[in-house]
């Protein structure tokens, strides 16, 4: 997942700050399907060959593996079109998410919004949260830890402006 | 830096796991990469100690130190653990650390599955090692698990089958992650043919793993049902065919030996251009050679079975198809040499290991060609010649590439330079020790000494003694490696971002150690 959208960091003229990130997909849907099917067919092909010779217990394992591949394929499909947006405009901070069929958003007051960023160890396993009125919301899910730290700094600056 | 320092000031009210829990729950590719590498390091010393016990027993003819059955347990577990517990996990460690860095991706595609894939391994490792304490001891039928022996053994055989299943599941999860990351998470502009060769070799390795793991799982399951549920897949007593096990096993295991070497090709292809200060010669031909090796690896399996009584046509087919693999392998060796040709070379430890790899792996390739000749192999099958062959490709091949890779990337990972003096000492002792152990095995094999025996005829004594001395030199010099790694993690001279003057690629554009701001804006590759 991830990549800061190439035109994600628009520091607009009207002091509106928009940060949009989305999971990176360098394969198209069609290409993802080709990858899945070539793997599935090779597994199924060899397993069927052995099954025809009477050594059928390879088949269920091929089936399980194809199941796992299908799950992975499906996860990629739901990541398609997913995004997360943080907008700071006037005295409002708006968070929006879209992933698969799920979409949500939250608004908070710019003056009350706080940024927390914790890392279990430097640069690893960082959690970035925006909180206000005792409720926090995790942001930066498509970013690397390093990019999250960087975003935390940017957000702090922007919120203060 | 200051952002991060700042981040630490503000403590949120969210507890995050620390200590052991942090490592158990981590989904970060760098953490998981480190875990794989530490696991491989520990297992290297476990399986290495077994090898030293084997060599100690073989120092003299006759039985010296142990019961023959325990000797057989040692050879079996040494093989299984070195393959599934050392070489494969170490390569997975490299993949976890390097693939996202090389591709400009924030992490692996499925971080949680990545965590699972690793943590299954220690479970399997404990099961394998623990089986020494079961009634009847550990499995003793050889890492190839052939029936009828494997159908007859005690409870540890069932446990080993379970461990193989677990390790297989781990490999499948790891492979799905690697394939998806490489294909789907490349930075904008980083086309497949611009990827570092290491990514290519791992991509193809992961395909091999996915294609063959169900075959292994099915094969060991049939052993299990033959043992416990009265089936007769391989049990001759019930009309089963033990030779079919060999076909099925090698249909998995020949691609497996390439799983053990393709990532090594990748590592060496990163190291050599850096220290020759020239781009890799014949990048595209390297990619095609890797792919051809992988495809051919599916049609050569019966070269392990020339003595089972195949029809002549079969022997010829497997003989020529095996020889065919030498062509793409030769292309690779040629390209590495051509990369070094007229380069301005320097000989830091990673480069030394890479050069030793090219020379000594080639010896293993040649002895492979000797074994590929069916009439010759009928003499050499199951002798020490085979042992010499696969240790040249696996020790001076796979393991040396791992050493090269560790010395090469450790400064990037830890932020510290390793001690070049210690590194070079480790290199020279390893390379000399390795040849003293394994070169005489060619002669032993040609003279007819069978493999996997605790006792031997008197005329084999001298070469065995030389081999044992070499083994202790090689084994103990790995303690230097351990020292270097631990010292470099703890501290040492600060490493620069680029670390090596000639290093190219995304991973070197970020500071050492890799953590902060890895790719603050998506890197665009031109
Ligand atoms: C030019 C390339 C190669 C050729 C032509 C070749 C050929 C062979 C042949 C014919 C055998 C069977 C010998 C016998 O049992 O009588 C063999 C065994 C073996 N080879 Fe290779 N090989 C090559 C490369 C490799 C590589 C790259 C690896 C692993 C990294 C490898 C690992 C092994 C192992 C582990 C065995 C022994 C398996 C066992 O019986 O326990 N080989 N090779
Ligand atoms: Cu083979």
Automatic annotation (TrEMBL), chain A:
<dbReference type="Pfam" id="PF10003">
    <property type="entry name" value="DUF2244"/>
</dbReference>
<keyword id="KW-0472">Membrane</keyword>
<keyword id="KW-1133">Transmembrane helix</keyword>
<keyword id="KW-0812">Transmembrane</keyword>
<feature type="transmembrane region" description="Helical">
    <location>
        <begin position="34"/>
        <end position="56"/>
    </location>
</feature>
<protein>
    <submittedName>
        <fullName>DUF2244 domain-containing protein</fullName>
    </submittedName>
</protein>
<dbReference type="InterPro" id="IPR019253">
    <property type="entry name" value="DUF2244_TM"/>
</dbReference>
Automatic annotation (TrEMBL), chain B:
<feature type="transmembrane region" description="Helical">
    <location>
        <begin position="244"/>
        <end position="268"/>
    </location>
</feature>
<feature type="transmembrane region" description="Helical">
    <location>
        <begin position="316"/>
        <end position="338"/>
    </location>
</feature>
<comment type="pathway">
    <text>Energy metabolism; oxidative phosphorylation.</text>
</comment>
<keyword id="KW-0186">Copper</keyword>
<comment type="similarity">
    <text>Belongs to the heme-copper respiratory oxidase family.</text>
</comment>
<dbReference type="InterPro" id="IPR033944">
    <property type="entry name" value="Cyt_c_oxase_su1_dom"/>
</dbReference>
<feature type="transmembrane region" description="Helical">
    <location>
        <begin position="466"/>
        <end position="486"/>
    </location>
</feature>
<feature type="transmembrane region" description="Helical">
    <location>
        <begin position="116"/>
        <end position="139"/>
    </location>
</feature>
<keyword id="KW-0812">Transmembrane</keyword>
<keyword id="KW-0249">Electron transport</keyword>
<dbReference type="Pfam" id="PF00115">
    <property type="entry name" value="COX1"/>
</dbReference>
<keyword id="KW-0479">Metal-binding</keyword>
<feature type="transmembrane region" description="Helical">
    <location>
        <begin position="159"/>
        <end position="185"/>
    </location>
</feature>
<feature type="transmembrane region" description="Helical">
    <location>
        <begin position="76"/>
        <end position="95"/>
    </location>
</feature>
<keyword id="KW-0408">Iron</keyword>
<protein>
    <recommendedName>
        <fullName>Cytochrome c oxidase subunit 1</fullName>
        <ecNumber>7.1.1.9</ecNumber>
    </recommendedName>
</protein>
<dbReference type="InterPro" id="IPR014241">
    <property type="entry name" value="Cyt_c_oxidase_su1_bac"/>
</dbReference>
<keyword id="KW-0349">Heme</keyword>
<keyword id="KW-1003">Cell membrane</keyword>
<feature type="transmembrane region" description="Helical">
    <location>
        <begin position="350"/>
        <end position="374"/>
    </location>
</feature>
<feature type="transmembrane region" description="Helical">
    <location>
        <begin position="197"/>
        <end position="224"/>
    </location>
</feature>
<dbReference type="InterPro" id="IPR000883">
    <property type="entry name" value="Cyt_C_Oxase_1"/>
</dbReference>
């Amino acid at each position: 997942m991830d990549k800061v959208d190439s035109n994600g960091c628009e520091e607009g003229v009207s002091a509106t700050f928009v940060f949009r990130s989305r999971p990176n997909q360098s394969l198209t849907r069609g290409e993802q399907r080709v990858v899945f099917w070539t793997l599935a067919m090779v597994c199924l092909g060899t397993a069927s060959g052995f099954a025809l010779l009477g050594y059928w217990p390879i088949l269920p394992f091929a089936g399980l593996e194809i199941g796992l591949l299908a799950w992975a394929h499906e996860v990629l499909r739901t990541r398609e079109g997913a995004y997360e947006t943080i907008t700071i405009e006037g005295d409002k901070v708006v968070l929006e998410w879209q992933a698969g069929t799920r979409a949500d958003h939250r608004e908070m007051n710019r003056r009350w919004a706080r940024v927390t960023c914790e890392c279990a160890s430097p640069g690893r396993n960082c959690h970035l949260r925006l909180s206000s009125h005792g409720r926090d919301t995790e942001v930066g899910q498509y970013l690397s830890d390093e990019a999250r730290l960087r975003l935390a700094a940017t957000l702090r600056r922007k919120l203060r402006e | 830096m200051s952002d991060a320092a700042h981040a630490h000031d503000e403590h949120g009210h969210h507890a995050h796991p620390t200590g052991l829990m942090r490592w158990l729950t981590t989904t970060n590719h760098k953490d998981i990469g480190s875990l794989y590498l530490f696991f491989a390091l520990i297992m290297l010393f476990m399986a290495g100690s077994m090898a030293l016990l084997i060599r100690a027993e073989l120092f003299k003819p006759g039985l010296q130190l142990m019961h023959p059955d325990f000797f057989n347990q040692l050879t079996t577990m040494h093989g299984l653990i070195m393959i599934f517990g050392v070489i494969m996990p170490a390569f997975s460690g490299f993949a976890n650390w390097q693939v996202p860095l090389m591709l400009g991706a924030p992490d692996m595609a499925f971080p949680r599955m990545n965590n699972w894939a690793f943590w299954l391994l220690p479970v399997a490792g404990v099961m394998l090692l623990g089986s020494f304490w079961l009634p009847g001891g550990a499995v003793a039928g050889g890492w190839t698990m052939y029936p009828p022996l494997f159908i007859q053994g005690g409870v540890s055989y069932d446990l080993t089958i379970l461990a193989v299943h677990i390790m297989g599941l781990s490999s499948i999860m790891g492979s799905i992650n690697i394939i998806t990351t490489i294909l789907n998470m490349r930075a904008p502009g980083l086309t497949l043919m611009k990827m570092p060769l290491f990514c290519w070799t791992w991509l193809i390795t992961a395909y091999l793993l996915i294609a063959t793991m169900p075959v292994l799982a099915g094969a060991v399951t049939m052993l299990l049902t033959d043992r416990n549920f009265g089936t007769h897949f391989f049990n001759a007593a019930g009309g089963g065919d033990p030779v079919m096990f060999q076909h099925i096993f090698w249909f998995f295991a020949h691609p497996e030996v390439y799983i053990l070497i393709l990532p090594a090709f990748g590592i060496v292809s990163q190291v050599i251009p850096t220290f020759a200060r020239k781009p890799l010669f014949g990048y595209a031909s390297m990619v095609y050679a890797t792919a051809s090796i992988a495809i051919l690896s599916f049609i050569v399996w019966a070269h392990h079975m020339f003595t089972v009584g195949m029809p002549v046509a079969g022997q010829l087919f497997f003989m020529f198809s095996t020889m065919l693999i030498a062509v793409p392998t030769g292309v690779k060796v040629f390209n590495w040499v051509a990369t070094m040709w007229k380069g301005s070379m320097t000989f830091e430890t990673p480069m030394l290991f890479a050069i030793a790899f090219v020379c000594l792996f080639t010896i293993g390739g040649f002895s492979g060609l000797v074994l590929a000749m069916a009439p010759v192999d009928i003499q050499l099958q199951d002798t020490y010649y085979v042992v010499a062959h696969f240790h040249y490709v696996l020790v001076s091949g796979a393991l040396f590439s791992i050493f090269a890779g560790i010395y090469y990337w450790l400064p990037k990972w830890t932020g510290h330079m390793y001690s070049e003096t210690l590194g070079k000492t480790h290199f020279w002792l390893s390379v000399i020790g390795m040849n003293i152990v394994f070169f005489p095995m060619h002669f032993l094999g040609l003279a007819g000494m069978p493999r996997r025996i605790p006792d031997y005829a008197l005329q084999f004594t001298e070469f065995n003694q030389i081999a044992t001395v070499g083994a202790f030199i090689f084994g103990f010099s790995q303690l230097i490696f351990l020292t270097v790694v631990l010292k470099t993690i703890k501290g040492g001279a600060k490493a620069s971002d680029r670390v090596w003057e000639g290093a190219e690629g995304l991973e070197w554009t970020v500071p050492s150690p890799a953590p902060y701001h890895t790719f603050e804006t998506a890197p665009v590759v031109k």
